[in-house]
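Data deposition worksheet. Section B asks for the primary sequence of the deposited chain exactly as it was used as input, without tags or linkers unless they were present during the calculation. Section C holds the resulting structure in token form. Section D is free text for depositor observations; keep each observation to a single sentence. Incomplete worksheets are returned to the depositor.
Section A, Depositor: J.P.
Section B:
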Amino acid sequence: MEPRLQAADLGFFAALAMAGSLSAAAREMRITTAAVSKRLSQMETRLGVPLVNRTTRRMSLTVEGETLLRHARSILAEMADLEEQLGASRSTPSGLLRVNATLGFGRSHIGPLISRFAQQYPQVDVQLQLSVDPPSLSDDAFDVCIRFGPPPDARVIARKIASNQRLLCASPAYIARHGEPKTTADLARHNFISIRQGDEAYGVIKLTRGRTGKTETLKTRGNLTTNDGGIAVQWALDGHGILMRAEWDIREHLAQGQLVQLLVQCHTPDADIYAVYPAQHKSAARVRAFVDFVAEAFRPARP
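Section C:
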């Protein structure tokens, strides 16, 4: 009698859920959309429950589908770790590595790093997904997440790979028109470019004079808001207002004089860059190799 759930079903369903649609999954698997739909239907028939709610434009998982996905990801991760432990004598990392990073940082830094990593470790299959907000660290959808700030969940391992801080900046053209703020009180009369991302308070910044001084919480105002950091930086370059942005994102613009750092005597909360991964993946050679590779790439240049 054919088993209702087969080992190959787990990988197929996890890939389908990651893709987000039947057509996207078909492109990922290099088969037709009809073939993906047929295989999904066969799984649902064998299991006797619907796994996916289908519409013309998108799909969503049913309660049963969410349960299957959670267990499938856990089993697949354990199988990959088991395979590496059984082949521990092999020094070459291999297997599937699922990486998540934020949109701007992932596009400009992590993507190019993965290109070099893949050249050095061709036996590792890397899947990179970029997202506006950090994903949940509890659903085991990724092996490594590159994120800003330490994670709130103590059940995961967080390795700091680079120091980073947010800076206030504006273009020389904006400063010429509106003047340069000299104190935090001066900020009240300036236009701010706001970024809505994650759970951070919108339109609110925190500034500390020196490293140990009093921290002020300031409400900002402005006529431009976006959830994309790259667009916000471009608006600042165009002279629309003051922007608070991560140092890694504006370093070159500051060096070239396209942006000017403001209130250099003040500091914002650190936004250090971390590689975060579940504790159960710490022994996986592919995870260790990737985290070490990223950490080395961000290591400050020695004089």
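Section D:
The chain has a mean pLDDT of 83.
The chain is about 40% helix and 25% strand.
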